[in-house]
What we know:
Keywords: ATP-binding, Cytochrome c-type biogenesis, Membrane, Nucleotide-binding, Translocase, Transport. InterPro entries: AAA+_ATPase (IPR003593), ABC_transporter-like_ATP-bd (IPR003439), ABC_transptr_haem_export_CcmA (IPR005895), P-loop_NTPase (IPR027417). One of its GO terms (molecular function) is transmembrane transporter activity. Pfam families: ABC_tran. Helices cover 28% and strands 26% of the residues. The chain is an alpha/beta fold. It binds adenosine-5'-triphosphate. The site of adenosine-5'-triphosphate has 13 residues, from helix 1.
Amino acid sequence: MRLAAEGLSGERGGERIFSGISFELESGRALAVTGPNGAGKTTLLRIIAGLLPAAEGRVTLSGDEERWPGVAGACHYLGHLNAMKAALTVEENLAFWRAFLGATGLFPQEALEAVGLGGIGHLPFAYLSAGQRRRTAIARLLVSHRPVWLLDEPTAGLDQASASRFSALMREHLAAGGIIVAATHLPLGFETVEELRMGKRQ
Ligand SMILES: Nc1ncnc2c1ncn2[C@@H]1O[C@H](COP(=O)(O)OP(=O)(O)OP(=O)(O)O)[C@@H](O)[C@H]1O
């Protein structure tokens, strides 16, 4: 499987944020997108996820078109917001996502154990600390299989042990043939094969 971006330009509020971004990632490879605040890292991830249109260029996913006919449907997008309902329990939130995205991954309790939150599935999401919320959002990546993980500052708010655990989960995803594009200010904790450095804006 190969994720490719060709000549991507991104705009926000009618203003060109970046242009001429190209890359190719084979199964098992990760791309760390780095650069200063406002460089367009989130914008790029959202374009890849199909959440924003590209001003120019295109993103394609090839190699298993029968199973993954489009890029958007093949992606998990972990944004700054955690995409959980405050009033539902942690486990109910994950059960919702598993039903919504497809029961092709771990059960909610298994996913919670994988992020070290096995004991708190019964708590309302609203009760969780910032780091626990982030770890629950990471558990969402595990309840339904998607080959491409798009991660925006995935380790923000995580303590060192949680960041190491997540790093191991990312390595497992790559070892299983997955692809990762991560916007990050911090090292991801494994040898990223490529870095895409986005420019300074102002
Ligand atoms: N909805 C919007 N309308 C207009 N401009 C926007 C909008 N969203 C973002 N921008 C602008 O687009 C630029 C790129 O933002 P983006 O969030 O992609 O940067 P980033 O590299 O992810 O930054 P950070 O490291 O701070 O997360 C910024 O100047 C931002 O102010």
